[in-house]
Predict the 3D structure of the following.
Amino acid sequence: MVTISGVDVTGPRTSGRAVTAFYGIPYAKPPVGARRFLPPEPVALPEGFDARSYGPTAAQNQYPQAALAMIDNPLYGGEDRLNLNIWTPDSTGRAPVYVFIHGGAFRNGSGATEVLDGASFAANGVVTVTLNYRLGAEGGIQLADGTSNNMLRDQIAALTWVRDNITNFGGDPDHVVIGGESAGAMSVAALLVSPAARGLFHGAILESGAAHNVVAREGALAVGRLFAQRLGVEPTAEALGEVSEDEILRVSAEVEAEIAASTDTETYADLAGTSMAWQPSIDGDVLPEHPLEVLARGEGADVPVLIGTNQDEGSMFVTGLGLYESATPEVLAAAVRAGGARDPQAVVDLVSDGADPHPGSRLTTFMDLWKFQLPLREFLRRRQASSAPTFRYKFVWPSPAFGGALGSHHMLELPFVFNSVDTDAARTTVGEDLPGALTAAAHGAWVSFITTFNPGWDPYFGAGATTTGVLDADGLRVETDLDESTFTTWEGQR
């Protein structure tokens, strides 16, 4: 039991480890009704708060059935959706803190999945936090009344709560590392340059996401107006707060599908053609500028970063969602155009230059490079200008699950990083008889970075060569100039 502002909070001891967990602690008022689209507000805990079970998850449409075969996404009902979970080895200590932000394309996910259990981190001396934040239109809409980036505002509110309260759980508020995967990593990149988040963390980890997923203000405002129009209300937080949750979720999905199919870049700018209509946007407030511009000036250089990707990021979005066999040259060309390539035909030619001529293979290669590897490289380049301490990893072990069809797919590193490979949710994607050296290396590298700001190898940009920590079946190896020829070939295409 711990005490927060005079309120006793009870959490369970985890099985088999000298760790105590606290689940579902609210860090802001429930974002429902009139508050659904408003910035988060501080909340006081009720007397004798019971933290022995996960709290409500963010309002969302569940993943399609095909995705649920690969992704664990439990949903819990209730209104106190802005909550967090904590695992601690000793509530009287002063340990490093790791705050993890889940992924899910800014429309799905929670901090309550089995794979994100923080007990192993805590057993290795790291107070670990996962959190829930608003998703879909509730989290990402921008309106002319000043509403914007509620997902980032929620994350900042959670980090503020951690700063003010984590000592009660044995954490050090002066040694906080934030991390995230996919949309969570994109959130971390935005927080890295946000004036509102400055000083709330001291290190950052980005898994399969970088700083490219921040969109122009005019496009975000246009999508906000479209959303309100589809609902038949004024484009204000007040008016949208009167709409039912079911309608919000239904129209949120419809607008996202409409934007994904749109070619109207004049109206929607860089949001046209993207499958994530509700991603962070430049708003002059939480995000005054695009993160890539801020990083190039050297801001955030005092925050060490560990960033990387998996070998086969694109496979989940093509083969995993059943799009491989139906892919055609026309589908590939449309995807390249929607991605905003400077010379679409040149990019089609680049992905077609391979041993497998199937359009599905080419589409997979494009998704991997365009959405993950090239944004990673651009992030690294922007950090290089300021000599900021930046480390790169690459996870290359291929999963035998699904007949090996997905390789080293998106999200595959998570159970190894969290050392949660023995959970039912993890076995679905990683299989059985796993390489123990890989788990030890991945989890160990994260623990090392969180505690020392160094994962165990040199920064990416060194004397005359780049350095990458590669995670494979045999554990960790270090390679120089990994992927340099590919990066050079694609230079200037984005």
Summary: The chain has 18 helices and 13 strands. The chain has a mean pLDDT of 93.
